[in-house]
Specification:
- By secondary structure, the protein is an all-alpha fold.
- The chain has one domain.
- It has 2 helices and no strands.
- The protein is rod-shaped and about 90 Å long.
């Protein structure tokens, strides 16, 4: 039984997994922020391209 308590103590002291989880959380937060920015700007850019296409079509007609 003494060996199990040593294994449990060693697992509780091991912080290697914690660091990788923190990096994964930071990466996912950055990804969500980038996706939010792209979604927010996507319609604005689409509207801009549509206005330019309308003006170009009118100028060519």
């Amino acid at each position: 039984m003494h060996a199990w308590s040593d294994v449990v103590k060693q697992l509780l002291r091991d912080e290697g997994g914690v660091t990788s989880i923190e990096y994964a959380l930071i990466a996912s937060l950055i990804a969500v922020t980038v996706l939010g920015a792209v979604a927010s700007l996507g319609s604005s850019v689409s509207d801009l391209y549509q206005r330019i296409a309308t003006k170009v079509a009118a100028a060519l007609a």
